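INFO batch 0412 | record 1 of 1 | parsing
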Amino acid sequence: MKIQPVAGWISFERRLDWELTKRCNLRCAHCISRSFHEHVPDELDADGALRIVDRCVEGGISQVHFFGGEPTTRPDFTALLRRCDELGISTSFNTSGTDLGAPLLETWSALRHRRPAWVSFEDVREHAQDAIRGAGSFHQGRAGAARLAEASGDEGFVVAFTVTRPALAELHPRDVLESFGELGARHVVFQDLAVPRDAPPRLTRLAFDGALWLAFLERLFDPAFNPPLAFTYRLKPLVLEHLNRRLGVELPVPYTGCHAVSTELRLLPGGTVLPCSAAVGWTGALRRFIDETPTLVDLPLDELLALEPYRCFCEHKNVRHVDPRMEPCRACHLAWTKCNPCVFGRMLDEEHTVQTCAWVREAREHEPQT
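INFO prediction complete | emitting tokens
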């Protein structure tokens, strides 16, 4: 189903990023879930989750990406995959690879509507990976990824590789790409790690500075480097411009509008719809959506998005544009070495977040006064 424009929102097919569960069988040093889960109600039961899938069809959602927590820990995960498939919704999921049993892999192999599953890693060396996720996680994750590759056939799987200080300092990009290519991956998506300023030592050791990060990027995008595996690294224009100058290349600088509200929605374990991942970072905004709107179980998506908090968010997203071709966060000076203001809003106090962002200001206004 194609989505018709509503109140000036962009008209594209809708995708739902569904945080299916808070549960996980690992305790990764960098997991951000604990920073906001205290505000999130308990997760949906099996009937409520199936009801959400039906709402997806009603709301014109054509893709659902499951993550967590660890989505494979939900006993009804295979049932949700099958229901989506029956309704023509394409599915994918993000996993550590450590809990991929035969029933799930058989279900996944039989689906008609699916996109490549994602397996997450932070390193290609046993000692470094286990230091982040726990003893045994390296071999468990790689064994699970190999089984997923077999179940996925020609499409293989995608590696979501979160870069950390040890990897940036001690590995060449070739080491990363070759290792996952041998495992059966078809693609690697590099993701930046953002570390809170008050992080515990185990996490602080993973933090990296801009110089180390840029040195890794220069090796990755060096014209002399022939990558052994396809990869994606979503970089801001300022970073790409630096690489173009430094390396004498012509990497394309993207100019894209923000698709929040209209196309990319986030669903919390309790059924609350967030129009943008940024809402997770600002407690006041998160509480607004949780406290002031029904869940997707209770209300169809189009009716839910017509409620005041979502209309308010849409208005602020519209005025954020510094350049009509550009996401506002791409014009932020903080984009030079980090991800975007959404990360900074989550990881730092808001005084260090871009001051011209109307969404940040609106979120601050709804923070409880102490």
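INFO post-check: Confidence is low (pLDDT under 50) at residues 1-11, 320-370.
INFO record closed
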